[in-house]
Design brief:
alpha/beta
């Protein structure tokens, strides 16, 4: 099957799972089909599916990521020893681990086609990631605490692992407690990476999007924690500050 045929197959299989979708027509356009497929993956609850679906999904997602272009960490230039600033799509970066700014439910964003990093990572890694996270939460028996970190496979992403962390949600004036929790997110991810003998970690801008942490203060905390950690004896030798917005790029550029 080519990409178009695989996309059609995946959509049809996901539509079959839910009786309320059985009369839904699949659009003819490629962009509309991609949007529908992503939306169906986003709202799908974590449950088993056929091996055939997973085989086709994996082939499809890997080809989609390859078409976007994979960025190799070795091709990036550090701004200082072991520290990188890179503006791009974190789901296309080949390194040991990328960091996902998760919510406390830990099974991803269920809003169809949402632009948050949690949605993107779950979409392009594949539905196995949500199933893994759901099992992890079932065993844990409670929602994930803010400031901690968990590790999973990355499935169809070019990185090897995903480090999931729940950042603080800012609903009023920023407090010292909020800053401490964000620092804990960065520290927990680095410690977990070191426990798993990983060499490279790419951080997104934790809590600065939907969770409303001020961008400049968040960046100051991130840089401070990373620099302090990198002074220790650790397997983590390369840290990437990944930014999406020009605003964050300029903030990190000034700090670094």
């Amino acid at each position: 099957m080519d990409q178009s045929e695989m996309r059609q197959f995946l959509i049809e299989e996901l539509l079959k799972e839910n009786p309320q979708y059985q009369d839904m027509e699949i659009p003819a356009g490629e962009a509309e089909q991609k949007q529908l497929l992503r939306g169906l993956m986003n709202v799908r609850l974590p449950r088993k599916i056929s091996r055939e679906f997973l085989k086709v999904q994996d082939q499809y997602l890997q080809a989609e990521t390859a078409a976007k272009g994979i960025t190799e960490l070795k091709d990036l230039n550090p701004v200082s020893e072991g520290i990188y600033l890179w503006q791009g799509d974190i789901t296309t970066l080949r390194c040991d681990a990328i960091v996902n700014a998760a919510n406390s439910g830990m099974t991803g964003c269920y809003v169809p086609n949402h632009r948050c990093i949690d949605n993107c990572i779950h979409t392009f890694s594949g539905i196995q990631l949500r199933m893994d996270c759901a099992e992890m939460m079932r065993q844990q028996g409670h929602e994930e605490e803010t400031g901690k970190a968990r590790i999973t496979k990355a499935y169809n992403l070019p990185c090897k692992y995903i480090l999931h962390t729940v950042g603080p949600i800012i609903r009023g004036p920023l407090t010292e407690a909020d800053c401490g929790l964000l620092a804990s997110c960065y520290r927990s991810c680095l410690e977990l990476a070191a426990e798993n003998h990983l060499e490279s970690v790419a951080f997104c801008c934790i809590s600065t999007g939907e969770f409303h942490f001020p961008n400049d203060k968040a960046a100051q905390i991130a840089v401070s924690v990373v620099r302090e950690f990198m002074e220790e004896e650790t397997s983590v030798k390369k840290v990437v500050f990944n930014v999406f917005k020009d605003l964050d790029r300029e903030i990190y550029r000034r700090l670094l």
